[in-house]
Each structure stands twice: as C-alpha cells, then as structure tokens.
Amino acid sequence: MNKIISLFFFLIFTTSVYSNTDRLEGKLERNLENLMDKVIAWRHDIHQYPELSNREFKTAAKVAKHLNDLGLEVKTDIAHTGVVAFLEGGKPGPMVALRADMDGLPVEEMTGLPFASKERDTYNGLDVGVMHACGHDAHVAILMGVAEFLTSIKDDLSGSVMFIFQPAEEGPPVGEEGGAQLMLKEGIWTDRKPDVVFGLHVTNAPNGLIAYREGAAMAAADPWRITIKGRQAHGSRPWDSIDPIMVAFQIGNNLQTIVSRRLDLRESPAVISVGSIHGGVRSNIIPDVVEMEGTIRTFDSSIRDTIFSEMRNIAEKTAEMAGASVEVYLPNGQ
Hints:
Blueprint lengths: L1 H12 L7 H28 L8 H13 L3 E6 L3 E7 L2 E11 L18 E4 L2 E4 L6 H17 L5 E9 L12 H7 L10 E4 L20 E10 L3 E2 L9 H19 L7 E10 L5 E2 L2 E10 L2 H22 L2 E5 L5
Parallel strand pairs: 3-6, 3-7
Antiparallel strand pairs: 1-2, 2-6, 4-5, 8-12, 8-13, 9-11, 10-12
Helix pairs in contact: 1-4, 2-4, 6-7
Keywords: Hydrolase
GO molecular function, one term: hydrolase activity
C-alpha cells in the first residue's frame, strides 16, 4: 500500500504543485513508516465496519473528523454522505483534486481476517452481509494519509488540493440519487473547479506493484434490469403457464451471444454478466414475474450502445417467442 500512496504523491508533484521534489522525497521517506501505520489502522477499521451506498454515515464522520483535525476547510453532507476538503498551498498554482470512494457492497465476508466485517443491512428488501469487497476501504485510508502528509508540507505547495470522498460509487439504492453525478449536481465544482482530477483503484496485481496500461485501464460499468411477465400456474400443470423462469434462462444464455457473436473483440473487450435472478415463492408454483439484474462493462462508447440495442432486442424477442412480455431498464433511458 505504501507504493500506492507514493503514486498519489507522484501524480501531485509531477503536476507542478511542489517546488522541490528532491526535498519532498526525503521527507516522505522519513515519514512513510509512521504514516503507513496509521493508514493500515484506518483501513482495518473501515473494512470491519463497511456501509452500503448512500449510508456511509460512520465512514464519512471518520473522514470529516480527520480532515477537520488537520485544519482543512471541510464540507460534509454532499450527495447525502460525501465529504470534500480543501488544502491551500503556500504558493500560487493549479488546483489538483484527489478522489476516493467510500461505499461497501452487499456481500457477506468469509475471509476469516481478524478485522473481517460482521455488518448486516437491508439491500433491495433483503437482509444482506456488508463487505468492502472492492477495495474502497483502502481508497479512503490512502487518501486520508495523503491529506495528512500534504498538510504537513503545505507551505511548499504551489497551488491547492481538493480531497473528494465520494459516496455511492457502486450505485445508489433504487429510487435514490447518489454518487459522483449527485455531487456534481449539488455543485461541488461551482465555486472552485480543479484543473485536473486523479483517482486510483486497488486491484489484484501482485502485492507491492503498481499496475498501469496504455489507454483505458478500467471499464465503464452500467447496471441493467429485465422484468419478465408471464402467467402463473401450478407446477404440476406447466402447460397452463407462461413460464417466466424458463424465459429468464433463455435470455441469460442469449445475452452471452452478444459478446461472443455480435461484437468484434479485436476492437475492444466487453462483458455482460447476470448477477441476480428473483422469481417465485414456492417450489410447486410457477410464478408470473421474474426479475433479472446484471452489469455491462465496456471500454468503448459505440460498443456500449451496440450492447444496449442488442440486449433490448434479445430480451423482447425471446420473451415474445414464449408469449411473455418484458420491461428492459438500461442506463440513460435506452
């Protein structure tokens, strides 16, 4: 993790915000071990007590207290639980923004770690475990550490730094706004807009290495939902039904042909995954409704648009063959 923190500093100081990089490296080296102890402790605590999107109340309070203790200008309750802070350097220069996401996922932790999460919450009406399974605990702890170090050298900074702790990166709950879009809607850049924004994401690269690649490194993530409407019947009389479960099976299979048969993967990779299927309440009743949810990952906007079009076509035609109907929910109303 110390190399990830060093990367953040490298990005800051190659953006002409620090006047003497050699002195910075020496001070960072002298302070890194003590700072890392703090970052690791913060990460363990945040990991043990994760919170779902738009519900990051304790995490936001921890972040805000730390930033206030550093003497920064702090704004809270942005996009529900977001936190923003400003550090003014001692010399004129650009504004650099650094961003970290705060929310956990509805996943039950089974790592056996001494700081493993035992938290539970309600997600889509279901009782679920909550876990930092995507690394946002590390992101928050890293940015807290970066804020502490940059504050200690603020007199030598040329310009200013905006620290953005974003809620709901995984997507807000159904029926709510949230995330980066709501932070922008609420005007976090109305008064002061950064010249450049940097973020990072931990990944499954070997420990101690910083991974990078030419071009896009992380895909656009788009959630989707398909509601299949059929006709309920007793399980002993399936001929009386229009079985939405069978339609869901067929749609799930057919969606995979978009990537394997409809896209030229020499141009750019793509992924369509089904993450959730819900339907029925008893073993001997064929239900009338099934809901499927999943995610789309793309690097190219034209491929993204093609997937949206193909998904809608497949869902509607597959359902039509069975006599069922579907409602397809895709981003941006497509």
